Every structure is written in C-alpha cells, then in structure tokens.
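Please produce the structure of this protein holding iron/sulfur cluster.
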Amino acid sequence: MFKLLSYLISQGTATAQGFCPPLDDDCLGLPTLTSTSCMGTDCSACANICPTKAIQVLCQAEGSSVTLDRGACIGCSLCIETCPTGTIVKDLSTQTATTKRQDLVLSTTKLRDERPILSNQDRQYIFHKSLAVRVVSTGCSACDLEIGASGNPIFDMERFGVQIVASPRAADALLVTGPVGKGMQEALKRCWEAMSEPRLVIAVGTCSISGGVHKEGYADTNGLEPTLPVDVYIPGCPPHPWSIIYGIALAMKNTKL
Amino acid sequence: MKVKHLEIPLNKRLTSLSSWLADKHQRLGLITSIDGSQLITLVLDPQQGSAQLWESPLSGDEYPSLTPLIPQCHWYERAVWDLFGLYPNGHPRLKQLLLHEVYDPHFHPLRTIARLPEIVSATQRKYEFLKVEGEGVYEVPVGPIHAGIIEPGHFRLSCLGEEILNLEIRLGYLHRGIEKQLSKIPWQKARFLAEAASSDTAAANALAHAQAMESLVQIQAPPKAQYLRSLSLELERIAMHIADLGGMAVDIGYLGMASTLARLRGSALRLADLLTGTRFQRGFILPGGVHKDPDKQLSTIRHETHKLKVSLEPVITLFVENSSAQERMETIGRVSPSLARDFGLVGIAGRASGIAYDTRQHFPQGIFPTHAPPVAVETKGDVSARIKVRITELFNSLALIETLLEEIPAGSVLSCVPDKLPANSIGVGIVEAFRGELIHLVFTGADKAISRYAIKDPSFNNWTGLSIAVRGNLLADFPICNKSFSLSYSGHDL
Ligand code: SF4
Ligand code: SF4
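Below is the modeled complex.
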C-alpha cells in the first residue's frame, strides 16, 4: 500500500492541461472543406475513394460544389490524400460535436464555422453543472474504450462535472455508441424509458450518427436516430476522448436540463 | 498462407475430425458454410504450420451434429443454423446464437441457395435458458446492458447460496451482419469494415484481412511494411494487455493500480497514434502493406517505448507482489488443461491452461518466422495464471518492438495490388490477436467477387471457457473471472 502510494506521488500529475485542444500534427483527425475551387465531377476522386459515401461532388452552374458529411465520415484521410486541389484538408480540432445533425454536413458553399461553439463563458458554465451519464454500447468497442479513456487520469472528465453512472435511473444523459442493430434496439429503448426527464441522448461515434461502416446492412445498423431522439452528435470512428468531452460539454449547455 | 482443399463426404466428417483432433497438437479452426449447400471445416496443424479446408457437400438442410462427440463444435453449429438454416441433427442444446427473436424465423442471411420446405418448422428463434433446478437454487440475470462501459451480452447465473452452479451466456446483441456486408461492398473498401469487426483488435483484424486478401491475389507486402505491421500488432497487444490488467485491478478494488495502468495505457495509445495517426490504428494495415510510412516518428517511438517499459516494470512488480491482490486471484476461475483442449480455447485462456499455442510461432507470417517471441505458458488455468501469461507477453512484446525498431529496413511500404480477384479461390489469414487466434477466411466465386467472408474471433472459442471457469466459484468472483478472459462481444457477434 505504502509502496504504491509513494510510487503514485513520485509520478506527479498526469492530467492534460487545457480544454479540448487540437490533436497533434501527425494525427489523422477529420476532413474539412476549404474555399479552394475544385474540379468537380471531372475528378470526383474523393467521392470515389470514400469508404462510407460521406462525400458528394455536384456540378453546379457556377463551378462545382462538394458536400462532406462528417456524420458519415470515419476519418480514414483517404479523401484528403487524393484531393488534387486542396479543397479537402485535415482538421485537427477536437471540437467537432454538434447539436444538429445537419451541422455535421459541410459544403463548399457552407464551410465549417471555425468559431468554437463553446466560448470561454461556457467553460465557466461547465464547472457549475454536473451531468450523470449512462453509457450503452452497440458497437465495436473502440468508442466505449474512448469514453472510458475520457475518465482516465489523463483526460479526467470528472473534473468537468461529468460522472459515469451504472443505472439509467441516476442518469441525465444517455451516451450511445455503435450502429444500434436490431439486437439492441429493444434494450436501448427500455434503458431510455427508465431514465427520468429531462433526459438527453448523445450519439458517440460515426456508427451511432449514421451507421458508419455498418450502414445498410440487414441488421438495421443505421445509427441511433431511428430508435431515439438525439441531442448531441459526436463524430469520429472512434472520436478522440477530447471530442467526447467536448460533446458532453455541449450537452451540458442544453436548456432542457 | 496456402490451404489444402479436400472433399470430405458428410458421413466421413465425424471420423475425419475425431482422428484429426486425436493428435493433441492439431486444432479445429472453424466450421461454416459458403452458401448453404456445403459445410466447410477448416482444420489446422500448428506443428507443421499447415491448414486443410474440408468441404462436405450437403444434399438437404440437415446434417449430423458433431457436438455430442466433439464438444467444441457446439457454437459453430448454432451459428451455421442461424446464418444458413442448416439443422445439426442431434445437437444437445441447439438454440439461436446470433439472430434474436426480432428476426424472422425463416431469415438466414448468408444462405444464397433455395430452401427445402420440410425443415422450415425446425427453425425457432425462441430462446430458453437452461433451468437449473433444486432447493434453494436462484438465478441472477445480468445484462444485456452492463453497469460499466462495456459491450452488451446477457449472463444468466444459477446459484446456490454464494456459489455459481451454472453460467449461461447469451450473445448476439451486437450482431451487425458484418460477414454479409463484407461480401457485398467493393473489396478494396472492405478493410474498414473488417477492422471494425472488433476495433479493440483493429490492427489484428486489419492484418488478418490483409493476409487473407494477399493470399488470394498472391502478393506479399514489402519487408519494411512487414516490420511496421508487426509493430502495430504488438502495440495493440501492449495497450490491451495493460487495459486488461487495469480492468482486473478495478475488479479487486486496487484503484491506485488501476489508474496508474490507465495512464500507462494512454502512453501505449500515444505510441500507436505516432505510428499510425490514430489511437486505435484504424486504416493503417491494408492488403499490400501499410497506409503510411511513419519514418519520421520511429525514433520518438523507440524512445517512448523504452520509457513505457521502464515505467511499467515497477508497477507490475507492485501488482504481482501485493499479497491481497494475489489472494483474490489464485485458484479462482480454473479451467483444466483437458477441458481447455476439448473446447479448443485459444490465446491467453488456452496458454494459461497449458496449451502452448501461439499463431505467431505456429503460423508465422511477415517477420514472425524469425522473430516470434517464445510462447508464454502456465498450467494452473486460474485467474492468476491468465494474469501471468499476460504480463510475460506484455514484456515480450515490448522487447520485440525494441528489436524491430533496431532492425527495420528501408524501402517502400506498399506493394502493387492487382485490381481483380482470381475466380473460385480461397484466401486465409491467421493472426495472433491480443486475445488469441483470429482467422479471416475468404472465398471468391466464378464472378471473381467475394462470395463469402468468414471471421472467427478468438472469443468465439473462449466464451465457453468463461462458463467453465466460474462453475463452483463465488458469485462475487464472477467479475474478476470475466475480466481475466477479456472477451469480445462485437468480435463474437459480428
Ligand atoms: S476521411 Fe471521411 S470523408 Fe474522407 S474518405 Fe475517409 S471516410 Fe470518407
Ligand atoms: S463509430 Fe467506429 S469506433 Fe465507434 S462503434 Fe462505430 S465502428 Fe466502432
């Protein structure tokens, strides 16, 4: 016991400073669009290579337009590497969650708003509230491990007032990972029904937003939305722990609570 | 890897498989079908590093079950029933495995041939748990949604007092139809789905996929890529072994240890991030090689790996030398070597019960013919043996990474991959994932497209091991037993 204590003390603080900083340069991150004009349907390289059909290239009268659905994207970075014009570039921000599904869909005519949705004022707000969350997994376990990692000594989301609870009865928010196939829909609904109102639902990961890599299978793996109403969408396959913490912080801003 | 394709008539399956398994080094790889008109049995000879694929043509929808005599067939036969509607006549406890009641009873997603009408009534999706009867016996149902942050599955524990008499495990909640999708989507994009079969095993799944596809199109990844793939595979093993040790520390209430291990797992994930660009190494390994050349990061990785090793050593010593931790783990959750063999346990669960089988040694690919670490074996088969195997492997992998980083050759990281698959061929990839033997098996049809993609996760073998291990143990020891197996729900359910 004492040996462990003295070891722990000798290790100092491991917790990361700051709040949802961008990822390191060598990470893949998620793609985003720029205003650099694109070759349109003559190229379509990005749309052809995307494994999840997240990109559409449309030819328009005045030049071409690209739409990128970050809610379908798994962050493989292939489109960024293939794009010859620099229309699609890497975005290392971890502040990627949104409260509206359509805000995840970027287009060259509607670029991502670079202003953080959470301002400094909001950060204070985070520290004034607490949120009890219940996690239900219906996916491949990477998203779950990243939620777990959000609570580890490095990211330590409890310091922001976020607590993982074991029962839906004690939860304010339901965090759902995975594409919600047929086998889990009933259990998930019952878990949600067991929560008292007001209750929020957070979709963690591309699968739970759109089905991701699982989309269109016979097991109805098209995401959470057909089963439950969603309040916050956290994209990524899996999202980085900072992205998850950011998404939960967004949920804390919700006026329903 | 090449497999020998043989035809074994249905009435010879039992004798062939029994005599194959009579040699205690030989193994059953998996049982499945391609389209419902045959049974496929993949058998492995780890001593020779060779495999045979037995094809048994079927004339109807029924076949004699092998389970009564070869118990490790039990889940395969259930899965084949669900997915293909083939009825294993004589299976002692036939019930659905992957497709729950919400699916139509006549729905068999992987069957592509027409169905004979007379067997339809045999297919029932209603699930009944085994009833353990007697005075004072009560049931504890757990799941499908668990208290922690973990995948879903249902445990039905029948107990007498504090003692567990029987554990029945019901899975399938995570069934996502991955195998079917893998034969529908363009094969060049299939790798992203293949690695999401179970993403804590993303590197191993991607590697098994790559090996299977490479054996189909008969290409090899360049030497540098072979090194990078092994780095990736071993980093995944390190991160997950640390995570599992940490999980066990949580279950015995050793929280300072748990948080330290969580922090060190973070360092391992950082290494993975440096190597591949993501913490779970998604999209890194692909048919033909690897996706990017992390040359610039290698010296940082070398430095950080060394740091991780130095930090881990004292922590692990504290873990194993803590006598109250030891007492919580010794003699608990025992699986005898003979049962481990009968049920074909793999990976840590098998090695902790004396089965010296590690596919890095026995089916070596890439750099492993010369670099496979020694097989870590224990004989007691209890929780503590599984921890010991994990710890030995953890340090073996760290040492291996250091060697690989010393030796890594220069050159390209991606070979040219043909854009057409050969017709009527078989590809197989066998990889030692952190949980054990992982198999990807691919068949192509006359149309040069994938006709069947089968995945056998190590947990498919090992879930039964958990049921065996907890019998006669205290209910309070169930969590630690469970964690010591570290089983995948998503890899099993697919
Ligand atoms: S990064 Fe996203 S949008 Fe781009 S190809 Fe990959 S999945 Fe598609
Ligand atoms: S979003 Fe990606 S990481 Fe998360 S459950 Fe789905 S496949 Fe797994």
